[in-house]
Design a protein that fits this description.
The chain is mostly helical. 79% of the residues lie in helices and 0% in strands. It folds into two domains: 9-144, no CATH class; 145-174, no CATH class. It is built from six helices and no strands. Helix 2 (44-84) crosses helix 3 and helix 3 (89-103) packs antiparallel against helix 4.
Length: 179
């Protein structure tokens, strides 16, 4: 599964680090703006300035944390691509687990293991959803043979002659063998 829209590996680390920083800074900025707005004294002016102060104080830190996660994840992912000589979902799952473990290493072994488990499970979930979506969406781009197209056309004509709606036949409300 090659991703042709991505940079090659050494540059991918920098690209992912920057993208993660931007995502963390914007998302963290929005979250901090809401938090600062809610925690400020009453009055619209105070609330707006409180929200802006919270954004200035914390959004860069959140963006930096996201950037560290993105750079670590990409470095491990590129290392796995180099050593395994293939790019598949297992690289992302292993990278997520390893990144979670590395970033939680200062807090102790149990926290490190639980963060690695959460990182691996989260990336497995993301990769699994991506595989399922690509599997089902690929079927809509499948080429239909002329014989199959003719069979579908005949079935549609029979449905129209019998007065059966296409939705009823599609969703199993009627036995298609009776047509």
């Amino acid at each position: 599964m090659a991703e042709y829209g991505r940079e090659p590996c050494p540059f991918r680390i920098v690209e992912d680090c920057g993208g993660a920083f931007a995502m963390g800074a914007l998302g963290g900025g929005a979250f901090q703006a809401i938090k600062g707005f809610r925690n400020a004294p009453s009055g619209l002016g105070y609330r707006l300035s409180g929200g802006l102060a919270a954004v200035r104080a914390r959004s860069g830190l959140v963006g930096g944390n996201f950037a560290v996660w993105g750079a670590t994840f990409s470095a491990i992912d590129c290392s796995l691509v180099y050593f395994r000589k293939k790019e598949d979902p297992w690289n992302a799952i292993i990278s997520g687990a390893t990144t979670g473990g590395i970033l939680a290493a200062r807090t102790g072994l149990t926290s490190m293991l639980s963060s690695a488990l959460v990182g691996g499970a989260l990336l497995a979930l993301i990769e699994g959803v991506g595989i399922v979506v690509s599997h089902y969406s690929a079927d809509s781009y499948r080429q239909v043979s002329p014989v199959e197209r003719q069979q579908r056309y005949k079935q549609e004509l029979l449905r129209q002659q019998k007065g059966v709606s296409p939705l009823a036949a599609t969703y199993g409300e009627i036995d298609s063998s009776a047509l």
